[in-house]
Amino acid sequence: QQQVKQSPQSLIVQKGGISIINCAYENTAFDYFPWYQQFPGKGPALLIAIRPDVSEKKEGRFTISFNKSAKQFSLHIMDSQPGDSATYFCAASIMGGSEKLVFGKGTKLTVNP
Amino acid sequence: EAGVTQFPSHSVIEKGQTVTLRCDPISGHDNLYWYRRVMGKEIKFLLHFVKESKQDESGMPNNRFLAERTGGTYSTLKVQPAELEDSGVYFCASSSSREQYFGPGTRLTVT
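The joint structure predicted for all components is written out below.
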């Protein structure tokens, strides 16, 4: 049973467009939702994270939207650039205990020039 | 500040052999995690250390996997004997808070 479902599996966007990646979760105990960006041959790098007490968080061209009632959160990349081409992972964790991350399966984003 | 480092970057071994992966966390980070990504699947949690103590090893697949963190610094993950299904990328992450920082991973191929 996959606890965090991520879609789409792959995404192709033109330069300057908006990339949108969606995630849904089941466990209402999750209280921390990070997004990671991974380039080939590298490890996942923390991009931006949100907690459920806010509905939106923006850092530069990257925005997380969070819908607690729907148990969904999404990553929006504005003005997408070819350098944004990477695999993006959403994740979730529960405070206390190990705070281990539960990941989505990843979205491979390609931004065409 | 140096990031999380992992060694080796790649390892190819035969079924039945032993492999030891190493992770050096960010200095001062008490929390150290091991994760694994099998091809086509999501990144999955293996275990969590707080300093030298195992806090949670619920993700370890079986007793062929042994993790240690001597002195609360670097950690090793030993697979003995390796099986074909152990192939994948093994990531280490460290943290001092909720933010986990990942290493580049070790790609393990068991033939």
